[in-house]
From TrEMBL:
Its cofactor is heme. This is Cytochrome P450. PROSITE patterns: CYTOCHROME_P450. Keywords: Heme, Iron, Metal-binding, Monooxygenase, Oxidoreductase. The lineage of its organism: Bacteria, Bacillati, Actinomycetota, Actinomycetes, Kitasatosporales. Belongs to the cytochrome P450 family.
Amino acid sequence: MTAPVDAPLLDAPLRPVAGPRGVPLLGSLAAFGRDPLSFMVRLREEFGDFVTWRLGPRRCVLLSHPQHIAELLGAAERDFQPVDIGWAFHQVAGESVAVLRGEQWRRKRAVVQPVVRPHRVRGYAPTMASCTIAHADGWREGQRVDVQEEMAAITQQIVAQTLFGDSPHVQGSGLRQAMATVQREIAAEVRGGVGLFLPDWVRTPARRRVLAACSVIDQAINRFIRERRAQAAEPDGQDMLATLLAQRDEQGQPLSDAELRDEAVTLWIGGQETTATTLVWAWQELSGAPQVRARLTEEVQRVLAGRAPTYEDYDQLPYTRQVVREALRLYPPVWTLCVIARHDTSVGGIPVPAGTMVWASQWSVHRDPRWFTDPQAFRPERFAADAPDPAADHTWFPFGSGPRACFGARFAQVTAVLVLAALAQRFHLEIPPGRVTPRPGFLLQPAAPILATVREVRGG
């Protein structure tokens, strides 16, 4: 059940509170680096909704109240700018919509966003279903599998086909392996912290691996672009690359090859690993909740009756959607947001000096007992349409909110629901008792492999 946000709490005066003193020069860098998830929760629990602290030399603020998080995210692009995610991410994402700011960001977002609008996602749904079913056809009763590897294999195939269609060169291009490499190195850089502060010219072994992988990515995607340019660009093309090629900005200009490459990479990262991670956590929780698993199985078998799920089934599978939403609550792939004040501004009437790093942690807010009763429990019913105490705005924000919210949220959620439905009507992944600890990096992923035994579902 979800605890309502009452008016007196929303109207309570916001008072800045000094957080942990930290140590000279480093501030709370060591505590944050050891366990950032627990650190964010501790700041909220011990100090309140507006906590000041230091990450190295930088002044920071952690916001934990949904009212003030809404104010912060609504002011994105006007008063705040995204924090630089790091050298590795910039190498692979280039000048994509994920990293641009200001007018350049607005121009690029307007061109790229149509790729994942609902009517486009409808066209991708058959690919989501067919890739999932083809992969699951290789599963056998009693087989032992690595859940992360299995979900990643499915979502990689989905993203490859929705991005590049049926290009015969995807399989042998090395693109999947190269993307997996850069995603691992981005996560390691964010998790380690030190790499974020190294000068760009420093070439560590990790950075050399990123550059080598980026070379493979560039060659593969540029080849796909050349192939597609040799064909007629179709405004109603069935894959994302075809749609991107047909898009024009307000001046009637198309995306350059470099821009196409950057957006294709960003769409891959956003559509593949985020969804795979959500599915991994969903399977872990389902394995420990037999009643939830039984209800999910009943719904998908009743609605689908053995056939492949379609886009229209997304609305006909409310409990499956609730399972995905609850997995996103407990384990938000993006576990924290961070922006930097462009100039002297304020949040909740409290001054925020220019240059301050302002944080809002999905992990912490999603597990706040003020908003979610028994927040550690896996209860998909929280998100039922008729729930007596629905989640208040900005108590659940796995895809962010405001101008810089993830525009691929619909694609990610539809993918997760259709993949889960297609698998759950035939199989269950039986995971031994005990939860695997999440490890925060670029995304929130398991700290150790989650191994499961494949079980065929009776009647599936």
